[in-house]
Amino acid sequence: MKPQDISRRNFLRQAACSGAALTLAAYLPAYGHTTSRIINPVTDGTLPGTELLSWISINPAGKVTLMCNRSEMGQGTFQAFPQMLAEELEVSLDDVEIAFAPANPEKYGPQPQEGSFSVRGWAPRLLHTGACAREMLIEAAAAEWHVSKNECYAENGTVINRKTEKRLPYGALVEKAAKLKPPAEVNLKKRADYKIIGKSAPRKDIPLKTNGSAIFGLDKKLPGMKYAVIERSKRFRETVKNFDDSETRKVPGVSHVFKVNRPVFSQYSEGVAVVADSLWAAMQGRKVLKVDWNDPDSDLPATASLEKQMHENLQKIGRHSKFETEYERCGQKLEASYETPYQSHSCMEPLNCTADVRADAIEIWGPIQEANWIQADLSQRFNVPIERVAVHMTFLGGGFGRKAFPDYPYEAAFISKEIQSPVQVVWTREDDMTAGPFRPGAFYTLKGGLDTQGRIHAFQANTATQWIGQEWSATPPGIPEAAGYNTGDFEGLLHPYRKGIPHYSFGGAGTHSPIPVMWWRSVYASTHGFACESFIDELARLAGKDPLAFRREHLPDPRYQALIDRMSELTNWQSHGKNQGWGAAFTECFTGICGHAVKITRNAEGKVRIEKVIALMDCGWYVNPDIIRAQVEGSIVMALGAATLHATTFEDGKAVQQNFDTYPMPRIADIPPIEVHIMENDEKPGGVGEPGLPPFAPALANAIFDLTGRRIRRLPFSLDEIS
Amino acid sequence: MSSYKLSVNGEAYTVDADEQMPLLWVIRDLIGLTGTKYGCGIAQCGACTVHLSGAPVRSCSFPVSAVGEQPVITIEGLSEDNSHPVQRAWIAEQVPQCGYCQSGQIMSAVALLASNADPDDEAINAAMNGNICRCGTYPRIRKAIKTAAGYSH
Ligand code: FES
Ligand code: FES
After folding, report:
1. Which CATH superfamily does the domain covering B2-75 fall into?
2. What pLDDT, in 10s, does the model give residues B49-102?
3. Mutate which of B100, B124, B125, B132 to disrupt the A interface (most A C-beta within 10 Å)?
4. How do strand A332-340 and strand A592-602 relate by DSSP bridges?
5. Substitution site in B42, B57, B128 for ligand 1 pocket (most atoms within 8 Å of beta carbon)
6. ipTM for the assembly
């Protein structure tokens, strides 16, 4: 990477808390724009976006503060980002502090926390920034000593003169360094020379999370802050006809009751806010509020009608004649269908946001995954210039995609503006679980045909699902005239299958529904993966081949073959007895490739129990192996819940499950031993937070088939019912 | 509204609250200790776990009027500097991810270890099954409880 526009004007001198800290801001050139914002359209073939990085602050005492521009919801970015900066800056992680950067695309670039993007998207820029800052500090020291830069090197927050062994700490150099022009090119370290990257440095946020001091959104307090809860429409996209707040206003502490709206992209619904001096009072006031609703102008979705629609839509996807011809030529053919439900994100921290809206400025604090997006949304909806919209990220008690949806900050800002006071809007668990957005349910038909060698000759995957894009437009995409042929991608399916299988076809049909839907950890891969990797297992059985060897045969790529081979070793695959109950599955999404193998047994009562899960992650170049292991462990637990314990269903236009009593979560006793292994290679950095989830459900389903001969075609299913 | 005298983490507080107000909101919003979390409000998730006379209770479903003289200990009462063996074990095993459930997990684990110095897997399952972790840190919670048990040997 070559900097093209690193200039002095971007090195901002700032007074920080200490009064004399300097901020080194490196403007990195990746996309070449200086003023465009992330919401600008692409005009000249480059990606829109401003890469002004202002990450490193060193005070005269040598204290280094590194900014983390990503939200921290457990995925470990709070640790991984500083690890990358510190490596090239040559400081010890023990000596740095980490702070959340507020939304500021010009300074910190785009900040959405999704797509498992943190490390894979930012590594080059952060390494480069750290290296630039280091070189400037070295240059400042060289000037001080009147020697050539080449005589000096940096180590542990100090610049050292090789010949004289004189030393100057960064704190003494930073003021001069900040006035220098950043180097046009810097040398980055070799992977073998890393001291911090690739090591399991303990996470800096963890001690805050073991003594109750980490500040989550719900923990934010402002002087004079009020609390609000909202009675939202239970049926999707309802509006308020009228409400009776006479009892509500009698509750001590309740100060305001008024109508609010909840616009989400192109969708709209309403509710009634109850504002009080305490959250408890607001909740009590809400209990006695009476609201009459206008019937929504859409139909009232129910799970039965949604499923009927998905079944019908699958039939309507046009056939591609070339693919059909190839499929018909196959000697052995198989068709199968799979069904997956809607799911709730149910982050452990229910949604909430704190806002302080003044005449010409908006300030919000909250568990926010999409700082820039929310900043832009608020700016537009309230007609306040973007630079007067301050978005502060707290720690997130989980995100999983939900906390990128801009509805809850909007409500907080709306209420604060109305009551002219700071306010915290809190969603109860019931609000959080019933209002959506949800992961959409998806139904599938797969068909595959084998050639005379028992290899896949033709493979088709069709899905009917509610497309996530529907939130952005009033009409979701319909049903295509024909499925594709040897083109496109099916999120979750390993990419090289498209080389190893001569004829393939993917098709999809959108469900029409007013239910809000959104990314849920690993997005479509979470359901596509179940369908595809269960079906590949079915084809392997049809061919009479070992499921791992069968996959390998269709993956003409050494990286993927190595993954299969390693899984084979880790599981001692060849030595499995016939009735041991092993299943494996492999998926890829967000450039992370992951395999799971599940071993099941029957317990004394004849019930199937998971004995062990072995996971193998290939995310290429990586920063912190312990964070990877933690993410994969957590993904497996989340996938276990989605496969065997819970689903969101709908009746009469509303979600049925409201809390953990009817939406049961995996608990400690449900969790088998989990082993996580990481592939070592020099591939580009890949995603971690999401790719560890999709292989679990199909691996478990394949293990159940292996043990019992029963094929799981619908999620969730109860392990207790398998015998 | 009534006035209640509470002992929280060894400090005496007097609060004015509705008798039905759950202890959770008293601790968080009236006393201002925010380490104890709200997760479900119906005694299903354990995020709000505190100790009442040493026993774990779900403070979201425990009215302030029922506390009486019993001393309350919250996560903040274990130690500020993370020196409590369970906190040390949690850091050693790098348990928390998002961290939101962890105050409750730790309070349940502390209560378990107080009554059983060397819990086996069964005992851990029984004591910890009321605490949900959406991030799925359960394998590490199990390990950290065993690590903490080792510290006091
Ligand atoms: S908040 Fe009390 S158990 Fe969930
Ligand atoms: S660490 Fe996130 S819910 Fe437990």
Report:
1. Beta-grasp domain (3.10.20.30)
2. 999 999 999 999 999 999 999 999 999 999 999 999 999 999 999 999 999 999
3. B100
4. unpaired
5. B42
6. 0.98
